[in-house]
Amino acid sequence: MEVKKIFNSSKNPYFFSKEMIITKKSLNENQLKFTYQKQLISDLDHKHKEWSKSIESKF
Fold it and tell me: pTM for this structure?
């Protein structure tokens, strides 16, 4: 079974591929989750660097 691409995106809120079909809403939600997780990792990395500086200054 082959999925056909539909070029009129205003009538069709889906992205198509041979592997899966997802809605724009789902894609946007996943993008927001990814962005949030990336920010958390960045914050953790920053906190770790600050912590290691404070440890180095004590010795």
Answer: 0.48
